[in-house]
Write a structure and sequence with these properties.
Layout (H helix, E strand, L loop, with lengths): L1 H17 L3 H24 L4 E2 L3 E2 L2 H24 L8 H20 L3 H19 L5 H32 L9 H7 L5 H19 L6 H9 L2 H25 L6 H23 L5 H22 L2 H31 L10 H4 L1 H14 L6 H15 L3 H27 L19 H15 L3 H10 L6
Antiparallel strand pairs: 1-2
Helix pairs in contact: 1-2, 1-4, 2-3, 2-4, 3-4, 3-10, 3-13, 3-19, 4-5, 4-10, 5-6, 5-10, 6-8, 6-9, 7-10, 8-10, 9-10, 9-12, 10-12, 10-13, 11-12, 11-17, 12-13, 12-16, 12-17, 13-15, 13-16, 13-18, 15-17, 15-18, 16-18
């Protein structure tokens, strides 16, 4: 099925590129979404199965594939709406690259070998850069080249980590670099080489996870990409970066460097919060505000992994819920731009009056992303803080809460200004009217996040627990 999936994705991607008819492209994208959905169902029904040697359908990949498929449907729909009042010139390139990006992310979620992950992560860089440059503006070109250069640099650094892993495993009786093989013999490897390999992998793949120190890649990409693509980059690709790092972490968790890796995660997480807090206080661009919010959430995830225990569960739950909330907010910034023709916070305003459905999405989204009850993120962050208390990391706890207060204040003032305050740029004008049904996907996603605050479905709990079963308690 993996082979059939990629053959179908390749054919559909090429068809979208060369058949220059929007009606046909819409049909192609609908067919691709159906293929994506069927492939997701196949994986759910074949848990633990390995196909084509390099793809294993484990619980960790399954969790994030389910949410990727969910948001992909919304990404395609909002992409159609994005082009409804734009020149169709880039329509075909956009959707061809979008198929390639989603297919690359999907495969990387289940790749069971460090080299296979590396190849698929590089594929996301190539397809993602096409989508970032979509607008063909000077700033979009700069962001696209920066994305290619920094991501490629990150991938090269990660490859050095793979080389060190390979050197370390030489003579230990394994013939491949699958995560399972590495975990079996890593305890007998040179700890210094393992530390170097982990650092290179963490730094390299932080370009995708939007985690300190390579977080700037995602910030610029989210700012310049069309809003549906920003929603995908800040969620699907962030989750990909997490999986790529987390699988290596799991493979090395039985070695003497385990505690050292945890300290590195905590340090990286705290620095991510510091950077996010500093820039959120001065950001003036709505998409950039959301991008720094992603940095905040990945910082919390890193801290949760470093603390361990219930933090493992909380980290995955936080990423799942962040995917639903952040994609909703990105979709809404795209709708706001269609109505107000600006992404600048100071130039926006009266959004609740102009488009009440969109204003409501911003308000609910703010509550959810700030982890205020009844947001499901409250449960995830509460578990993270609980793990910090139980492990005695009082300084990290206090510092994190202090930085989160700044971030929540910064996001709240900007979103409330966009929703209620009078804008600086315009007065009473006629704006494009959007039907409230265009926000339906956002209300669905946010409703799921609120629902999970009160009840976590057993299948979700089981999948998360299976994902972290091999880690020390």
């Amino acid at each position: 099925m993996v082979l059939y999936y990629y053959i179908a994705a390749l054919i559909l991607s090429m068809a979208a590129l060369f058949i220059k008819k929007q009606s046909v492209t819409k049909i192609i994208m609908t067919v691709f979404l159906l293929v994506q959905l069927l492939f997701t169902l196949h994986i759910m029904q074949n848990s633990g199965k390995t196909e084509l040697t390099y793809f294993t359908f484990d619980a960790l990949g399954t969790i994030f594939l389910i949410v990727l498929t969910m948001i992909s449907i919304a990404v395609v729909y909002h992409g159609f709406r994005y082009f409804s009042d734009r020149s169709p010139e880039r329509f075909f390139y956009y959707h061809s690259a979008l198929i390639g990006l989603i297919a690359s992310i999907t495969g990387a979620y289940f790749a069971n070998d460090v080299t296979a992950v590396w190849v698929l992560v590089e594929a996301t860089t190539l397809t993602g850069s096409v989508l970032i440059y979509h607008k063909k503006t000077t700033t979009a070109l700069e962001a696209a080249w920066k994305y290619i250069f920094l991501c490629s640099t990150g991938i090269a650094i990660a490859y050095l980590g793979i080389l060190f892993l390979s050197m370390t495993m030489t003579g230990l009786g394994i013939q491949d670099l699958s995560f399972e093989s590495i975990s079996k013999v890593a305890a007998h490897a040179n700890p210094l080489y393992l530390k170097i390999a982990f650092l290179f992998v963490l730094v390299g793949y932080s370009t995708k996870m939007e985690l300190f120190p390579m977080h700037t890649v995602g910030i610029d990409a989210n700012t310049e990409a069309p809003s549906p693509i920003g929603g995908l980059i800040s969620t699907g690709l962030v989750n990909l970066g997490f999986i790529s790092i987390f699988r290596v972490y799991i493979s090395l968790s039985g070695t003497t460097i385990f505690d050292w890796m945890n300290h590195i995660f905590i340090i990286v997480g705290v620095f991510s919060l510091v950077v996010a807090a500093g820039y959120e206080l001065k950001v003036r661009y709505s998409a950039r505000m959301l991008a720094y919010s992603s940095l905040e959430n990945t910082g919390l995830v890193a801290i949760a992994i470093g603390v361990g225990g219930i933090g493992y569960y909380a980290a995955i739950l936080l990423l799942v819920l962040h995917t639903l909330v952040k994609s909703s907010l990105f979709f809404q910034t795209g709708q706001m731009y269609r109505i107000l023709n600006t992404h600048m916070v100071d130039e926006s305003g009266n959004y609740m009056k102009i488009y009440p459905a969109g204003g409501l999405v911003f308000l609910i989204g703010l509550i959810c992303i700030a982890a205020i009850p009844p947001s499901g993120l409250f449960v995830a962050e509460f578990l993270i803080f609980k793990s910090l208390v139980s492990s005695g990391h009082w300084f990290v706890l206090i510092l994190s809460l202090f930085l989160l207060a700044f971030i929540i204040f910064a996001m709240s003032t900007r979103i409330l200004k966009m929703v209620f305050s009078r804008p600086q740029r315009f007065g009473d004008e006629d704006f494009i009217k959007l039907h409230p049904v265009e926000t339906l996907s956002q209300f669905i996603f946010l409703s799921i996040v609120i629902f999970i605050c009160f009840y976590q479905p057993q299948f979700l709990v089981d999948l998360i627990n299976q994902s972290i079963a091999g880690l020390p308690k």
